[in-house]
Amino acid sequence: MSFTVAIDGPAAAGKGTISLAVAAHFGFAHLDTGLLYRAVGRRMLRGEEPLSAAQTLTAADLDGEDLRGPDVAQAASKVAVIPEVRAALVDFQRAFAARAGGAVLDGRDIGTVICPEAQVKLFVTASAEVRAERRLAELEAKGLKTDYGTVLADVRERDARDAERATAPMLAADDATLLDTSTLSIEAAVARAIAVVEAAR
């Protein structure tokens, strides 16, 4: 029997870290759906048409350290507003969510569009300022040169694009549990998420 945990939220709110921890705790499979869009975005940067890239995406496309780079992140946000691209990736995500043994999917529209019947829905968020600080630390740790103002502007730009797109905008499902990580440690945020899942099992 499948058990699906849908975790949504904006960039750098902590949903990826929380999703991985929840999946590991319960022995569920995990899919970072943002990687699908990053993979399409990377192929677009290499000259491919976004829809063609989405329709021919393979597991191998989800590998590579450069998928986490800022250029690919911006490209992912741009291809994610294309309705045909989103439609091409829906079946992949739903098939993953339906696998036996449980699955955790994180993204922007899992609880609202991809898996509206998920047994657990979490919307992980944090202030734009806190998320910019986290993203800046990540980028600096990778040796990338940037500054707080640039990263904050990028975070806000991505938020606007994700929330205002016509197809599957980023928003919390009506029955999602809100988890604001602005002032929480990673351990505390993970513990709260695990508690929510435990209560639903």
Oligomeric composition of the shown chains: single chain
What structural class is derived from the secondary structure elements?
alpha/beta
Q: DSSP helix count?
A: 9
CATH superfamily: P-loop containing nucleotide triphosphate hydrolases
Task: Categorize the overall geometry.
Answer: globular
Q: Can you tell me the residue ranges where pLDDT is under 50 for at least 5 consecutive residues? A: none
The biggest sheet amounts to: 5 strands, parallel
What is the N-to-C succession of helices and strands?
EHEHHHHEHEHHEH
Fraction of residues in H or I helices: 40-55%
What is the CATH topology descriptor? Rossmann fold
Mean pLDDT: 93
Head-to-tail CA distance between termini: 12 Å
User: Can you count the beta strands?
Assistant: 5
For the record, the count of structural domains works out to 1
Into which percentage range does the β-strand content fall? 5-15%
Question: What features would you describe in this structure?
Answer:
The structure is a single chain. By secondary structure, this protein is α/β, with parallel strands linked by helices. It has a single domain (4-195), classed as 3-Layer(aba) Sandwich (Rossmann fold). Helix content is 53%, strand content 12%. It contains 9 helices and 5 strands. The chain has helices spanning 15-26, 34-45, 50-55, 70-79, 83-97, 110-114, 128-141, 148-164, 186-200; strands at residues 4-8, 29-32, 103-107, 120-125, 177-180. A 5-stranded parallel beta sheet has the order 2-3-1-4-5, with helices on both faces. α1 packs across α9 (186-200).
